[in-house]
Design a protein that fits this description.
Layout (H helix, E strand, L loop, with lengths): L1 E2 L5 E2 L5 E7 L2 E7 L1 E2 L6 E2 L7 H12 L7 E5 L2 H4 L5 E2 L2 H7 L5 E6 L5 E9 L5 E4 L3 H7 L7 E6 L5 E7 L9 E2 L8
Parallel strand pairs: 9-13
Antiparallel strand pairs: 1-2, 1-5, 3-4, 6-14, 7-12, 8-11, 9-10, 10-11, 12-13
Length: 183
């Protein structure tokens, strides 16, 4: 699918002028903007009831530890598409580093996973797990509405992952169909 800078669909022949700088001089050129979408995963699991969602959250909220921890219900982008898992703000501000870095997450089977912790400072600091998170999510069959507890183990930022599945029967996800392009 081709779009202009205002999101209007274009045919491949429609182009708009742009100037590229080359050898110190402006030269006329043409540019096309192509919107690319990565394919992700699609759940094969049966539909989830509101009661199951609430029960998974209740089980996770009963978690007890002397160590700091946070609870998060998985969203679509956390486990099926972008694999950019935003960490709850209060946990980030209070317990996690104020810089981007590699961290180790330990899954429920005690397998270590190197993930990238992406920190964005400023007035509203935010953080997320990105590179490496997707592999961990897929390997552990995480799905939307599963509730994860992230328990900080030590000053080296090792984090133990505890999972409360919203549906106990695991049904592996499948690759989503790739979007069609007009090429």
């Amino acid at each position: 699918m081709w779009h202009n800078s205002f999101g209007k669909r274009l045919s491949k022949q429609n182009q708009f002028p742009m100037f590229n700088k080359s050898n110190g001089e402006n030269q006329p050129g043409r540019v096309l903007i192509k919107v690319m979408r990565r394919s992700g995963l699609t759940s094969q699991r049966r539909p989830v009831t509101q009661r199951e969602k609430e029960y998974a959250m209740e089980r996770a909220q009963r978690f007890k530890s002397e160590r700091p921890f946070t609870v998060k219900a998985m969203k679509h982008n956390d486990v099926y598409a972008s694999y950019f898992m935003i960490i709850p703000d209060k946990f980030v501000k209070t317990f996690l580093p104020k810089e981007s870095r590699k961290m180790t997450l330990w899954d429920p089977q005690a397998k270590p996973w190197k993930v990238w912790y992406e920190y964005t400072g400023g007035e509203c600091p935010r953080a997320a797990f990105s590179a490496g998170w997707g592999a961990l999510a897929m390997e552990n069959n995480l799905e939307k509405w599963d509730v994860c507890v992230f328990e900080l183990l030590d000053q080296e930022y090792n984090i133990k992952l505890h999972v409360q599945k919203v549906v106990l029967m695991i049904t592996p996800c499948i690759l989503a169909p790739k979007p069609r392009t007009n090429e």
